[in-house]
Amino acid sequence: MRTFALGTRGSLLATTQSGHVIADLAAHGVSAEIHIVTTPGDVNMAPVERIGVGVFTQALRDALERGECDIAVHSMKDLPTAPDPRFVQVVPQRADARDCLIARDGLTLADLPQGAKVGTGAPRRISQIKALRPDVECVPIRGNIDTRIAKVTSGELDAVVLAYAGLCRVGREAEATEVFDPKNFLPAPAQGALAVECRVDDAEASAALETLIDAATARSATAERAVLRALEAGCTAPVAAHAIVEGDELELSAAVIALDGTRKLVHSQRGPATEAEAIGQEVAEALLALGAADILN
User: Fold this and answer.
1) Is 42 noted as a catalytic residue in this protein?
2) Which of 147, 183, 186, 256 has the smallest number of CB atoms closer than 10 Å to its CB?
3) What residue ranges define each of the domains in the chain, with the CATH number in brackets?
């Protein structure tokens, strides 16, 4: 039986989430083993906005295309929104999509002292923090979960904002001092979702990946990323989106927020889950009608 080489970044989070994919494949009788691929984003600690969108995913896709690995696992929110005809892509069941705060002394965002320093480099997070707490200072931060949390425990920062899914995947969810309600703090499009890819001409790998598909997650992520694509915004833009599938219905909320938090445009829409792409497109059009282009430009 073929054992597939599963390409992943080498961080604890990346290898842990890839390990979950391997376990899910094994449950369906498919054998796979981790193959580490080093990406430019792993060696260049400049802000993502400077080194470019897709910096974590392109190296994995290149390794997949040249046959260095058979399968690649990405954080879906890091992928370009345009489909890549070289690959078959499936979306497994999503982890918790929300953002969370890890703060000193167990504090919440509302309880942080005046002028507190909060670590995050993501414009989407900065804009929403500023909307809720215009007095705090947002400090650019990169690195793995340990590196970021260490800046709080050392006293360098009062808090950091992270994807809750990452903490959950490495078993550290209890360290979150606040998990943000998406009604007040919308996550990134497709946050918490993985995208698993293989080469389009690899029928055996493609058949293996079909065992991973979660339809509700795929539809939610499709709707959220359709907003991003229709707004012509990259994954580092101050655009947030969150979709929930309940039965045959999908409800999508999305926002575009000025970086200083002074202007926030939000729109929600509900419709058939099978129309996820169209719902995302319509929500984006509604945001544009409200003036989203002015904020994004």
Assistant:
1) no
2) 183
3) 3-92+193-213 (3.40.190.10), 99-179 (3.40.190.10), 223-296 (3.30.160.40)
